TrEMBL record:
One Pfam family it belongs to: Formyl_trans_N
Residues engaged in binding N(1)-(5-phospho-beta-D-ribosyl)glycinamide: G11, S12, N13
Entry keyword annotation includes Plastid: no
Annotated positions for site Raises pKa of active site His: D144
Record-level GO BP terms: 'de novo' IMP biosynthetic process
Protein name (record): Phosphoribosylglycinamide formyltransferase
Family under the similarity heading: Belongs to the GART family.
Formyl transferase N-terminal domain: residues covered: 2-181
Length: 201
């Protein structure tokens, strides 16, 4: 399975996926990193991992559709089977979502549909829920609204701050995301009418 990872920030999820691909634990090829923030740490990680990066500034383009057409060309050039959003902080348009529907996944730091948006962990903490978690879902046109593939709970502990909670969420993400990508690679994830079934091994 040929995958592209989209990321905007630190890239700890990118790292977990690239590491498992390199060790053979995960039978995928990380063909491309797409990053919309020049200077993001994930770019260094890609360099070290020997993964080619396409880095761009959205402000250099007239519209989201304009740069997404460029991204779509890159994905097609490299024959990408699966697009993995890992901290990519932009909504996508139909230019990318339609051709990749069912072949594009995202990870979000809450138990969706609770706490969508850019601060899933902080919002859960502020609300006062006792359990939050991590969700991996297919990408549709909404913000964190697509069909859910997998979820893992993360209990909120007495004295948690946003940082301590995010650190525990990241630990869960680093395991869950590669696992789901493995299911995709094995053809075990079926999407039908917004419902996802994961077939047994
Ligand atoms: C993760 O918490 C992910 O759930 C969210 O953005 C964060 C990305 O972290 N969508 P990293 O860049 O992979 O370290």
């Amino acid at each position: 399975l040929r995958i592209a990872v989209f990321a905007s920030g630190s890239g700890s999820n990118f790292q977990a996926i690239a590491d498992q691909a390199a060790s053979g634990q995960l039978d995928v090829q990380v063909e491309l990193l797409v990053c919309d923030r020049p200077g993001a740490y994930v770019i260094e990680r890609a360099e070290k991992a020997g993964v080619p990066a396409f880095v761009f500034s959205p402000k250099d383009y007239g519209s989201r559709e304009d740069y997404e057409r460029v991204l779509l060309d890159k994905l097609r050039e490299r024959q990408i089977d699966l697009v993995v959003l890992a901290g990519y902080m932009r909504l996508l348009t139909p230019v990318l979502v339609e051709p990749y529907y069912g072949r594009m996944i995202n990870i979000h730091p809450s138990l969706l549909p609770a706490f969508p948006g850019t601060h899933g962990a902080r919002d859960a903490l502020e609300y006062g829920v006792k359990v939050t978690g991590v969700t991996v879902h297919f990408v549709d046109l909404g913000m964190d609204t697509g069909p859910i593939i997998a979820q893992e709970p993360v209990p909120i502990q007495e004295g948690d701050t946003e940082d301590t909670l995010i650190e525990r969420i990241h630990q869960v993400e680093r395991e869950l995301y590669p696992r789901v990508i493995g299911w995709m690679q094995q053809g075990r994830v079926q999407l039908k009418d917004r419902k996802v079934a994961v077939l047994a091994e």
